[in-house]
Amino acid sequence: MRCARAALLAVAVAGCATHRPEVAHRPVAARPATARAAPSTPDGRVKIGQPYMVLGHWYTPSDDRSYDVTGIASWYGPGFHALSTASGERYDQDAISAAHKTLPLPCYVEVSNLDNGRTLVVRVNDRGPFVDGRIIDLSRRSAQLLGVDRPGTAHVRVRRVFPDQSVIASLAPPPAPPPPPVTAEPPPVPVVLPAATPGTVFIQVAAVSDQGRAEWLIGYLQQYAPTIIARSPSGLWRVRLGPFATRDAATPILAQVQAAGYTDARTIVAVPGA
């Protein structure tokens, strides 16, 4: 699979690698009426989604077929590996994929690194980055191929493209692994939650380093139960559901969250502490 993905990499040396000015959106001419239909998932669905708010900013997804924007790219990796993406797939840091705030899920964009001339077609299947001035968040593998992984960010041009079926097939995510065998749930893990009543039960879904992604995750999870984020001493943002009066009350919600793809979610119990 990686060989097939690597064959997609098209490296083009640009005539000039100087930085271009960063802009939020740059109007471009509309594409011809003969452009291909919007790409879709294997079951024929494309997710555009409703407007949503993260860190006080509203974002409105749309099927912008002429998207062509210059700005800053970043990348995200191990802290999100195997977590669910906004499209419902599991994030694979070794796939050639990316996150975007408003484009359909999935869709395809050509990312050109204006600092070194490299160009790559990637599959957009997640939301982000929720940092001002950044226009795309690359998977770790995409960042490596574009030379963005070491500096962390790069000046890029992101252009919506409509590749043929062979490219789409090679960028498609692998089949979902079979569900793990049903085993007895381990006892709840005691943790210290400031200002929490001893014995109160929470469901911890994830711990991420990006506050924006934690905020987005809360917006998705609030359909199951009240949600909170709490920053740990290490700086990670813990995303939790609750509180629940008892472990039994949390159990059906935990099952729903795990079925939605957050298989590492678990119950935790507040204990006295500062």
Describe the structure.
The structure is a single chain. With 274 residues, this protein is of the alpha+beta class. 16% of the residues lie in helices and 30% in strands. It is built from 5 helices and 14 strands. The protein has helices at 2-6, 140-146, 165-171, 211-221, 247-259, and strands at residues 10-11, 52-54, 57-59, 68-76, 97-99, 107-113, 118-126, 134-139, 154-161, 189-192, 201-208, 227-231, 237-244, 266-271. A hairpin with a 5-residue loop joins strand 12 and strand 13 (237-244).
Alpha carbon gap, first and last residue: 49 Å
**In CATH's first tier, which class of the largest domain applies?**
Mainly Beta
Which residue ranges are poorly predicted, with pLDDT under 50 across at least 5 consecutive positions? 1-44, 187-196
Overall shape: it is elongated
What is the name of the CATH architecture of the largest domain?
Beta Barrel
Biggest sheet character: 6 strands, mixed, barrel
CATH homologous superfamily (4th level) name of the largest domain:
RlpA-like domain
Return the average pLDDT rounded to an integer: 76
Total strands? 14
The whole-angstrom Rg is 20 Å
Number of helices: 5
Strand order in the largest sheet: 4-8-5-7-6-9
Strand content: 25-35%
Provide the domain count.
Answer: 2
Q: Briefly note the structural class of the backbone.
A: alpha+beta
- CATH fold-level label of the largest domain: Barwin-like endoglucanases
Helical proportion, percent range:
10-25%
Q: SSE order, as H and E?
A: HEEEEEEEEHEHEEHEEHE
